[in-house]
Amino acid sequence: MLLPKSSLLVLFCLCSSLALLAQQNITGKIKDAVNGNPIPGATIRVPNTNRGTISDAGGNFSLAVPSSASSVIVSSTGYKTKNVPIAPGSTVLSVSLEEDFARLDEIVVTGLATTIKRSNLANAVATISGRELTGVAPAQTFDAALSGKVPGALITANSGAPGGGISVKLRGITSIFGNSQPLYVVDGVFFNSNSIPAGLNDVTGAATSGSPNNQDNPSSRIADLNPEDIENIEILKGASAAAMYGAKAAAGVVIITTKKGKAGKTKISFNQETGFVKVRHLMGVRTFTADRAADLAGAASNTDPQVQANRAWYRYKFEQAQAAGKIFDYEKELFGETGLVLNTGIAMSGGSDKTTFYLAGNRRQENGIVKNTGYLNNSVRLNIDHKINDRISVSVTTNYINSSADRGLTNNDNNGVSFGVALSTTPSFIDLHPNALGEYPRDSFANSNPIETRDRIINNETTNRFVGGISLEGRLQQSTHSTTKLIIRGGVDYFNFKTMALFPRDLQFEEKGQQGHSIQGNTNNINTNLAGFLVNNFSPHENLSLTSTVGATLETGLLDNILTSATNLVSGQSNLDASGNTTTRQFRQKYRDNGIFIQEDLSLLDAITISGGVRFDRSTNNGDYLKYYVFPKGAISWNLTKMKFWNIEKINNFKVRAAFGQSANVPPYGSKFTVLQGSNIGGFPGILVGNLRGTPDIKPERQSELEAGFDISMFNGRATLEATYYNKRINDVLLQHTLPGSTGYSIEWKNSGDLSNQGVELGLTLIPVNTAKVKWTSNINWWFNRSKVTKLLIPPYAIGAFGNSLGTFYLEEGQPATQLKGIVGNELKLIGNAEPKFQMSFFNELTLFKNLSLRFLIHWKKGGDNINLTQLLTDGGATSADYDDLINGVKAGIYRPNAGDAGVYVQDASYVRIREIGLYYNIPLKNTNIVKGLRVGIAANNFFTWTKYVGYDPEVSNFGSNTITTAQTRGSTGISTGVDVMPFPSSKRASFHVGIDF
Amino acid sequence: MKKHIIYILGLMLAVSACQKGEISSLNTPTVTGILTNPSKSDLFNLVTGTESGMRNSLSAYFDGVSVIGRESYRFSGSEPRWTTDILGGGSKKLDNNTFYLTNPWNARYQVIRQCFILLDALKTTRNEVANDAQKKAFSGLAKTLIGYQLLLNLNMTDSNGVRIPVPDKAPQGGIIKDPGQVLDSITRFLNDGKTDLTGAEVIFPLSDGFAGFKDAAGLLKFNRAIAARVYTYRKNWAAALTALNESFFDLNGSFTLGINHAFSTNGGDLINPMFLPLNSTGEIRVAHPSFAADINPLDNRILKTALRSATASQSGLSGTRDITVWPTLSSPISIIRNEELVLIYAEAKIQLGQFPDALVAINRIRTGHNLAAYSGPSTQAALITEMLTQRRFSLFMEGHRWIDLRRYGLLGTLPIDRPDDDVWPRYPIPQSETNE
């Protein structure tokens, strides 16, 4: 919402009726004040008229200016807006723009249809430009590219599986059982970000004993979005900024604007990235000796002759293997592949004064660090902006995405079939490799042969998705003091998501069991949104401006998931018919939400901004679907430097601000019903009361956020500090609270408590060096959040993970929402907290001689504990790398699981990570007409990490983040990240980049 | 212009209001829906769901009581707690908030809740759907199953207590820690069930797990068989014998005659959760070494286990014999069968001092399993030992040994495999019950 909007407005006014007045033609060039580079796309406007133009690729412009005009206003994204006087009679203007280091003139969205300059903004809105998102070291998926870039957010990769899966939590814990992930709005279209499980639970049984939550590790649909298409992202972190999004905004709103075309010559750019991906870290495996191998059969002191015979047998097997040189590192074999990364993008943009377009195609292809895994994403985008006449303009965005992810079989399982769980019990001295006939030996230590599983299973997710939006803006009236606009916006997000999980019948764990699984899921999802706004600008005086907005919104959604699980397969077949038994399950959810709002913004002296609004929302997911819930908001900011009395020259911007707002999270679909689930026997259809008791009068959880802070910018913007404190309270928190099992229900939906999140966000931007030859920009963010359960109407209870003996999240009044409790000795004790103490990010960009630039992003997460059950499993399977180290005189791998202390596996997951580092060179071109620009670069992603955490990665989540609830398993909760159970190991990437502009 | 604005605003409101109405439950029926004027198939579906639901989380129940009772080991690559918590390995204790307790506990009460919903639904059932005698069959079955399901939870927590279930939305009572008092409540549910089943007419379908017992008379016999078990636990020997006589007890009948949980690989059905293939690795259920060590070499009940091709070991424990009680994915799991009733008869007779009658039953068991008739002393103590031994092998892996030894205060006789292991006398009461 930066440049395109303002330039559109200007263009929109171009064909003005003032053409008859006397005028002169002015030509000129817009340049960067420091390095003298031309600035393309800058807006040149005649004040108080509708006249304006945009500079071309060389920074040149030509504009007819009425002879009465004494100046023009020149603005461009990232530069300070400048009022340039026109000397009488002159027809040539040369304008140097100074970079707007503090981004004070940036336009930020504050309402659904209104914007405001950053210098007057009352909230701390994080903005990420397309260049910051992908310009350093492109990540695999859009969601991964956000990591470390959003102050106030806790962003965690759920696993390293190809195709992404990221949890984004803005300003702490906003919901526990409701939606905890932000709303994504792409060009006004509500973009679905669900994760839909593939039914792997039928094979893994992961959700059948310790936890009912799904652990299939599905990818998030937000990963479909092509990061290269993104112009800009704005992140509204809480209700004070996002209140106008009403009952969907509690977890924050991520507003994504994709690239638009600019009038002028058609520009074609081609980008190619070639690289590789490798496992970030391996945990290592235990080094066996003959004695250690023998111990697997039982202690040396055991008097049972069978045990002694087995000890001898294992010893013999080990010695045989050692003599034959057949000691294997299966961890390395499974996770040690190097995957090729290919990312090709072509974008074409341009247009005329009336119509502009942006057309882009992108293909991302990469192989995973595990054989037979990988990710492919093809995306085509066409954005068109067209002015029907000088009053009405229309803007259309379309995006087709085809993505495919092969994700292997990882995460928790109860049947010993996933890669990691099988690996955890498999010692190095047995041979799992296929013989010459391609037959895999049976793993005598695990239920499955992980090498066979890897080579022969399929776990694929394929998405075909269309996202389209249309926006119509019309000027209803314009007079000297007021303008009235009508904006109508509609959008559709449709996808078909096909999952295919195939386990042939002769796999080790299938041959004597269910003899093959073919699990195929088909999900159709459609979300629509429609909104209309009337915006009136009224400026009775040059120092006073009032903007009034009224609007109505409607959103609908329908998800239909059909999953068929076939077992006892016909040999070699995957077709569902070619099986002995099939079970089909269907899960549908549907909602309809609508809202009405009104907002008033007042600007005084361009220094004081007061804004107020109220929104009324209702949803079919609420107990009372007809009831409108009311969400007010208010904000005030005062930019002292714009006041007449301000006379400190060194400080060129100082603003104090405060904002308050309310928003909500509607209850999840179905929370008002107590369902009777299918439960058949003997060929008869049966229904059994579900263990989740619905609440017929369920209400949305309501969030109230107060945020206050100041922004100060000194030394001509070369040092900027943004400081924000927030206090976010969530009332009527939606909980699935545990009922005494003796009621027949284990849990119940209930609005049953209050949460609070308090935190501080500090952002410091420095430009220590800024010369024509060297420029160094440094951006330091530091933030923390403290969440607390302030009221709990129900008894404290364990809400996640795998029970008290292994450490669990535990909701308790007066305690942090993220505390971890577990059994120590014989008591339930506090053993950790998943919330980081603080986080810090450090972004630097060093530009040398205009063309060479080095960029890097360091991310430090201090504190925050994980529940490391990966270590528990390797200890249990006697394969931990440090199994034989001594703790209190006992082998570590024996000591830890038997310590009777759940705290042993609750471990600090702090890290310092160079998330991104890139070195780019713009090759200077001379005398070329065709090629306009040529860039080369090398980049590395997650390449360097310092952590004491022993798992594959400190960022992990066995339960995913946005997994939907289906007929069989429950979705993710807002708290359960950080549970580590044999995830897909995370990877690091390095790539070489070539970009050409035509 | 104002008119335009009003017109457009009106249009916007019209658009937002163009869809109306509540969105109902798209995936399943709801409890509220079924409680008003249910149809015949609604009631049938509830009965089927009840029968089916009794099988949920059965494996956690059987594995728990069998491993604590040192009948078996459960080795699992993915779940170390079968060899730590359950056996009291190291300083580990039983967790009051994890799957091996909460899953079966909740599943049993869930079936009880369903039975109460069925009873509520009957209240609004029209006579054209089911007449009084037909309704009585529904309610008789529901009450019988409430009693049986509550018994299984009492087996786990014993004097740590259970709660007596109440109808939907009625306030819950406290935790009853006196097992005798709970057994009396169970008896009341069973006796109410008996009253209803007497003269009732069954119209609902049951799976073949109830083969031979699908009519009202059969269900009555099932009810009395469970009652005989409850009276035995209550040490009310005379009542146990009376109940036996009203059940399908047959001193000379087939040991396997009885009521089962049926399983199948059909779509929507459950497979036997206790089935594991022979010689499996990773996920293993083996007999405790003492089973083969203690059994008489002639005893054919050794065939409830089979020698593995390779010893299974985990965490310093090992076993050489797989359990073959359930040889296929669709093998039934017994709820109660004649062999137990014969042994209940023996127990009651021993306790009442009627040793000759008891010996007839004991010898019926012994000879039925290829053993010679009992030749030990005819003292009450010796006969109790003999009866418990026969129960141990006859009802192997059917969830009895731990409870039997607890009843007779003999848990201390169970073998301890590793120095720090414990034999738990009972499970703790689940955290969710006390957390108030």
Keywords:
heterodimer; A: 998 residues; mainly beta; 22-stranded antiparallel beta barrel; 13 helices; disordered N terminus; B: 436 residues; mainly alpha; two-stranded antiparallel sheet; 15 helices; 9% strand
Structural class of chain A: mainly beta
How is the biggest beta sheet of chain A arranged? 22 strands, antiparallel, barrel
Distance between the termini of chain A: 26 Å
Which ranges of chain A are low-confidence, i.e. pLDDT below 50, for 5 or more consecutive residues?
1-21
How many helices of chain B? The count is 15
Please indicate the percent range of residues of chain A in DSSP E strands (runs of 2 or more).
over 45%
How would you sum up this structure in a few lines?
By secondary structure, chain A is mainly beta.
Describe this structure in words.
The complex is a heterodimer of chains A (998) and B (436). Chain A is mostly beta strands and 998 residues long. Chain A is built from 13 helices and 52 strands. In chain A, a hairpin with a 6-residue loop joins strand 5 and strand 6 (82-85). The longest helix of chain A is centred in the N-terminal third of the chain and has 19 residues, at 305-323. Mean pLDDT of chain A is 87; it is low at 1-21. With 436 residues, chain B is mostly helical. Chain B has a domain at 283-323. Chain B contains 15 helices and eight strands. Chain B has a two-stranded antiparallel ribbon. In chain B, a hairpin with a 2-residue loop joins strand 6 (305-314) and strand 7. In chain B, helix 3 runs antiparallel to helix 5 (99-123). Chain B is globular, with a radius of gyration of 25 Å. The mean pLDDT of chain B is 92.
